[in-house]
């Protein structure tokens, strides 16, 4: 790949924008389920699995380093602007960069690495939960004001501090599952993109 084709161009940015929008619509629609307390921690399973389908389609169009990182930044920015805090911006950058490295290692053509890439990218979701563990008291005080005492108390029960590591692992595993489902559903697109 020469320097010219390795640069991200306007067409690539449009691709990132389109797939980021699709991914965000799905994520935000699913986020309403978290109003039910038990669904709040389960979002780390549901979102990476369902989000894996458009993300895997995005990978068939992603042949340049940095495109996934930009998508991760966009995820984090939207979470920040919608009041989810800045942690998702940090995890979006980190997970996006790591996913870019994994996809590059797979030479943008490995079906196995595409699944791993989705697993790694899905780690960005943990940013939506970090405040629960890092600024616990302030988080739950705000949760009481926003969702009520019963919701906040139930979430505290579901998410003791040790759950932080569990949620991180679950994000990755669910991302792998989402990658597998996405790959099988998008088999024709993968063949057309030369991903074997």
Automatic annotation (TrEMBL):
Transmembrane segments: 12-32, 38-58, 115-134, 162-182
InterPro entries given in the database record: CHP02185_IM
Cleavable signal peptide: none
Protein name, per record: MptD family putative ECF transporter S component
Species the sequence originates in: Zhenpiania hominis
Annotated keywords: Membrane, Transmembrane, Transmembrane helix
Organismal lineage: Bacteria, Bacillati, Bacillota, Clostridia, Peptostreptococcales
Pfam families linked to this entry: Trep_Strep
Source superkingdom: Bacteria
